[in-house]
Amino acid sequence: SLGVERVIDYRRENIAEAVAQWAPDGVDFLMDAVGASTLPDALQLVRAGGTFVSIPTLVDDGDLAASAAAAARRGVNRVFSTMNDVGCAQTLDRILHLVARGEVRLPPLREFDLQDVRDAHSASETGHAGGKLILRVAEIGEA
Length: 143
Hints:
By secondary structure, the protein is an alpha/beta fold. It has two domains: 106 residues, NAD(P)-binding Rossmann-like Domain (Rossmann fold); 37 residues, no CATH class. Helices cover 29% and strands 20% of the residues. It has four helices and five strands. The strands form two sheets. A three-stranded parallel sheet has the order 1-2-3, covered by helices on one side.
């Protein structure tokens, strides 16, 4: 099944050191959804033949062309991904089936009623909510 083999708590561990210790030959797949400055030597953690995906953010992600060239020299597939809706319905359907079969483990969800919006906002501001926060505006049929 798809899932996490190793969790790294960035508050307690050096990410690069933990990855290098866990996978000395490099990881098969690395995804950066935070920004290049968080893990500046990320490419060094991906094995030849592996894939390194970046989802561009609002922070400076560096020289994308240079990053792609460096990855090619190391034999790493470098992907820069942005959001679009092409194939979205099919992808969501596939994800739904993976979740239904228990092949993907979802992050924890925390639900808050609208009157508890301050608590939800406080949880979000910590930056360590771990999973997703849901603000319930109304039950279906109440609106």
